[in-house]
């Protein structure tokens, strides 16, 4: 990257890491960061060792997404998300990577955590969709050509039939018709998503076999078989 000016006005000599869960928010943040001219070197994915299976996407899917983006995935278990995130970035820098920013897909929450992480590391915090309107985010995701499905939903708000639902032009209207209290981005934990394709994927993912299960008050779409297809 050298000392070249970035389109967003920032300058730096390093590269970015991205907090990665496989969902639409982080993926959109990655997409926008790349459009800004940032060099994304790693996807950082973490799983909570105290809550195994609570919100877990099949790890093989995350690896397939990383392969589709041609960006390495670093996946770690944690007892403290904050400490493990900082440990990973410090390890990368010790290996000579020169990480100078971290990208997060936060919209309205967890900004204090992200600010603290980046402040302690001395790197730039990048939140491309921070405080964006949820409906505008959904519109941007659709218009950019993302293929996104729901893979977990709160059982007290959404039924099993919402699993696998694609985020399309009718999605927001259908949500509003079902329950107007539900945020279109699932910002309050109403649902979780999985990106199967987007402009920064070199391949698209296709689910071949899945089944629904219910645990901890959530319906999950457990993906058992999938494949990556050429675009």
Beta-strand percent range: 25-35%
Structural class: alpha/beta
Show unreliable segments: 1-13
The largest sheet is: 5 strands, parallel
Number of domains: 2
CATH second-level architecture of the largest domain: 3-Layer(aba) Sandwich
| Number of helices in the DSSP assignment | 6
Please identify which CATH superfamily of the largest domain we are dealing with.
HUPs
Which CATH class of the largest domain applies here? Alpha Beta
Fold-level CATH name of the largest domain? Rossmann fold
Rg calculated over all Cα atoms: 17 Å
**In angstroms, what separates the terminal alpha carbons?**
29 Å
Q: Trace the largest sheet across and list its strands.
A: 3-2-1-4-5
Average pLDDT figure: 91
Sum up the structure in keywords.
globular; Rossmann fold; alpha/beta; diphthine-ammonia ligase activity; 9 strands; five-stranded parallel sheet; 6 helices; Diphthami_syn_dom; Diphthamide synthase domain-containing protein; 2 domains; Rossmann-like_a/b/a_fold; putative n-type atp pyrophosphatase, domain 2
Protein described:
The protein is built from 6 helices and 9 strands, in the order βαβαβαβαβαβαβββ. The protein has 231 residues and is of the alpha/beta class. The protein has 2 domains: 15-126, HUPs (Rossmann fold, 3-Layer(aba) Sandwich), CATH 3.40.50.620; 141-230, Alpha-Beta Complex (putative n-type atp pyrophosphatase, domain 2), CATH 3.90.1490.10. Strand 2, helix 2 and strand 3 form a beta-alpha-beta unit. The chain starts with 14 loop residues before the first strand and ends with a strand. Residues 17-224 form the Diphthamide synthase domain. This is Diphthamide synthase domain-containing protein. One of its GO terms (molecular function) is diphthine-ammonia ligase activity.
